[in-house]
Amino acid sequence: MAKENHMKTHEQSPWYLAQRPCGATFPDRAGVSIGKSPAAGMRSDKGTALIVSLLILLVLTIVALSLINTSTFEIGISGNERTRVEAFYAAEAGIQRALSQLPSMEPIPETRIGNDSHYWSGGLSYRRNPTPSESLGLAFQYGNDLSQFAFRRIGIHVTGESQGAVRELEVQVKGNRPISPSTEY
Question: Whole-prediction pTM value?
């Protein structure tokens, strides 16, 4: 009887259950079989986990490369936009210079701003031979007492360039001193 008690405790010990061959079923405390040993299930899932983790790594790598490509493209776009804005402001500086020298309508020669920006009066083809501002005639306006005043209209055309980007601005200015129609000059 002592030998039988010893066998029962030995069969129910965790050490005894761990030594059973893989895939063997073992009884739980109530004597009902609960399936394969835990070690057998882990061995068959090791390859699947590796494949799934490699696929996730591949997807993350593709997403990262896509983000890098998009960022590089956006940096190029912002650089182009910066040079276009610099060209616009170079042309704006030429407009301001032409306004400051009014009533003279002399041409503005190519003028350097900083290292990479230039402006001149006229279009792109007039860089070496700038054109003067042009008179566009008179503009008439009525006053509060229904009297009529005439203003000189002037057209200013300036081109600005920065690092190869070109912007042309054309402005029409109404003279700042009214001329009475009855006044003769």
Answer: 0.56
